[in-house]
Write a structure and sequence with these properties.
Length: about 325
């Protein structure tokens, strides 16, 4: 039986990945600084631990592991990563997790490791035109990410590749493009646009206006978590290291995305554009390389994924109303 460690198993993508590995027959150890609030820890072993501490990394990385998935990071949407107020923590915390897990993997002789990078590492100068952003893998340099979160991801990609070059660890690196879906963060300040817009629409009543940050003409593509997990597994079982984009090519403006969610809700709502943290003007995944190397690319239509997510967020709001958290 293959054994895997999922770092960040208490989080959104890590929780889905644990379930996928279990369904494939893996023995899975999860580690996170917190419990997974939705997935009830389907890992065979779940360790609460802080990967900024090298002793914790040494405890959870054992020599019997076949694979490590390193997803633990200080992470959030525009309201968390583009305000500037969390930059030191994001860089300090995430880089320590990466350094400690890699060093432990080297010392314990674990041969294969996945790293979750981000489209935020792409240069801002190629993402100024909302209708024609460039995010092909080779366009990463000259580097000029628009956030410290993006710089940390770019540095850590290089860190994983350096361990591959010098220590024989096989690295697999994907650049995620805005992943969303059931069990993703939907409130509290770290939520990304898909969940935030679903929450705002679900909580609105006929005649209300939904607040969208910026002029709403900025573009993104959003990928459902199921296809993210499928891509991670396909990359991990391939002989291609990456870095490679893992995202959807179905680009949409934020106002059109809000209109889609409003249409799904069946409510009579309008959009109000307000100031807010924005990030790049336009972003879309470029899937040429993943198609070429893996013979596969995400294909689920955005609307289908949003319908599923809107339904789940509506249920969470109803649960919160029925079971309010005690003050
Ligand atoms: P998430 O916040 O739900 O999961 C990250 C998990 O890491 C959290 O559960 C958190 O508690 C854990 N963690 C943070 N610091 C830790 C520490 N010191 N020790 C142990 N655990 C720690 O986020 P996610 O959306 O599941 O993202 C997973 C990975 O994918 C992250 O590396 C993120 O940067 C990357 N990524 C995500 C997206 C996206 O759209 N969701 C896009 C690009 C990249
Ligand atoms: N979060 C959020 N909430 N964003 C909103 C909202 C809202 O209510 N209204 C409009 N937006 C706009 C933001 O201003 C931004 O221009 C766009 O929607 C997308 O915001 P996010 O989904 O929060 O983040 P992002 O796409 O800019 O970056 C995310 O994806 C990266 C990978 O593609 C972040 O989660 C990064 O951390 C991640 O690496």
């Amino acid at each position: 039986m293959k054994k895997a460690l999922v770092c960040g198993a208490g989080g959104f993508i890590g929780g889905h990945l644990v379930n996928q590995l279990k369904s494939e027959g893996y023995w899975v150890r999860g580690v996170d600084i917190k419990e997974n609030e939705y997935d009830n820890n389907n890992a065979d072993e779940f360790i609460i631990g802080d990967l900024r501490d090298p002793d914790v990394a040494n405890e959870v990385v054992t020599s019997d592991l076949n694979e490590i998935y390193q997803l633990a990071a200080d992470m959030g949407g525009a309201g968390f990563v583009f305000t500037g107020t969390n930059d030191a923590g994001i860089m300090h915390n995430s880089v320590l997790c990466n350094l400690n897990v890699l060093e432990a993997a080297k010392n314990k002789g674990v041969r294969r490791i996945f790293y979750s990078s981000s489209a935020c590492m792409y240069p801002e100068y190629n993402q100024m035109d909302p209708n024609n952003p460039k995010c092909s893998e080779e366009s990463a340099y000259p580097a000029a990410p628009d956030s410290e979160y993006g710089w940390e991801k770019l540095f850590s990609e290089r860190l994983f590749l350096a361990y591959q070059k010098n220590h024989g660890i096989e690295a697999r690196i994907a650049r995620f493009h805005n992943i969303f879906g059931p069990q993703g963060t939907w409130d509290g300040g770290r939520e990304k646009a898909p969940a935030a817009v679903c929450r705002k629409v679900a909580m609105a009543k006929d005649g209300d206006a939904i607040e969208i940050w910026g002029d709403g003409l900025q573009t993104r593509s959003f990928l459902i978590v199921d296809e993210c997990v499928e891509g991670i597994r396909r990359l991990m079982t391939s002989d291609f290291s990456g870095p490679v984009n893992l995202g959807s090519e179905e680009m949409i403006s934020l106002n059109d995305f809000a209109k889609m969610v409003i249409d799904i809700s069946g409510k009579n709502l309008t959009i109000k554009n307000i100031p807010g943290p924005l990030g790049v003007r336009g972003r879309n995944s470029d899937n040429h390389l993943i198609q070429q190397k893996l013979g596969w690319a995400p294909s689920t239509p955005l609307r289908k994924s949003v319908e599923k997510t809107y339904e789940w967020i509506t249920e969470q709001i109803q649960k919160t109303v029925l079971e309010p958290v005690e003050a």
